[in-house]
Amino acid sequence: MTQKHKKNTSSRGVFKNVNLFRDDGTNENPPSIPIEKIHLPDSQPRRYFSPEAMSDLIASVKKDGILQPLLVRTINDDYELVAGERRYRAAKEVGLEEVPVFIKEMSDDDAKQFALTENLQREDLNPVEETEAILNLLEIRLKTNRKQVISLLNQMANSSRKLTDNVVRSEENQIVEEVFKRVGRLSVESFRTHRLPLLNLPDHILDSIYQGKIAYTKAKLIAKVEDKTQEKQILKEAIDNSLSLNQIKEKIKLLTFSKEEETLSSRFDKTYKQVKRKKELWKEPKKRKKLESLLNQLEKLLDE
What is the crossing angle of helices 51-64 and 85-94, to 10°? Predict the structure, then answer.
């Protein structure tokens, strides 16, 4: 009973606004601690930081210091960073020996949920990071793995179509709905149909999305090109020339048509050589008659 109650209240707290951890009356004068005592967690929600944005932040920290304290939790005699990785990296780059912090006692799950939730509030979060963060959050809230989360989302979609809830337990359903309500930008079905496929994209395309070089809608379209050499060529052109979605579609159409044309020409050449070699086509009356009919059709086609 106690453990269940703690889990529910913790989940609600983590989902509240970040200010819950800053305006509780205990952090009016946040302490400063040695930056060397702060360590990054094993997994971070954010993988890519814009070099331009980081450069601006470093310049700001060099001039004014850390204006917004980092959020940390105690781990043995040191601290683990919960929120504020960009500020932490900027402070290390500038060479600050101490940084202001808010220190909170948090469980592993609470720290992960808080970091993911705060990250999802960022406006510059790219679609791949957002997708990963939502899945990670669902894994923690549902206490399961990635595969089971995706399976649950698919089950929810199927049960919704059948207007029944026999497959998905209502408790799981409510947790999923709560997460997406808090995120606020995507529905469960939109996430399932439009965002989950992103994780199946080739690594080089995912990297381009991570780095903000191309929109995920364009990237998904380019990834459908079967010829990988052509796919990489279109991706490069799309990035270098800031091609629109329609321009990318036209390029793919032209390449597809060109490939079909090349294939047809190759087939014709191959068939022509085989016809010349097969003497029985010329000697057997039935085959010769069919060949003559096809030849007449071809001559007629050339005259059009």
Answer: 60
pLDDT in tens, 45-63: 666 777 888 899 999 999 9
- Going by the DSSP 8-state scheme, the letter that residue 106 receives in this structure is -
Residue 110, φ and ψ in degrees, nearest 5: -65, -40
User: Domains (ranges, CATH) in the chain?
Assistant: 2-108 (3.90.1530.30), 127-245 (1.10.10)
CA distances from 70 to 45, 50, 61, 157, 183 (A): 16, 20, 13, 39, 22
- pLDDT per position as a tens digit, 96-149: 999 999 999 999 999 999 988 888 887 677 888 899 999 999 999 999 999 999
Number of neighbours of residue 303 by Cβ within 10 angstroms: 6
Name all contacts of 274-279 with Cβ < 8 Å and 24+ positions apart: none
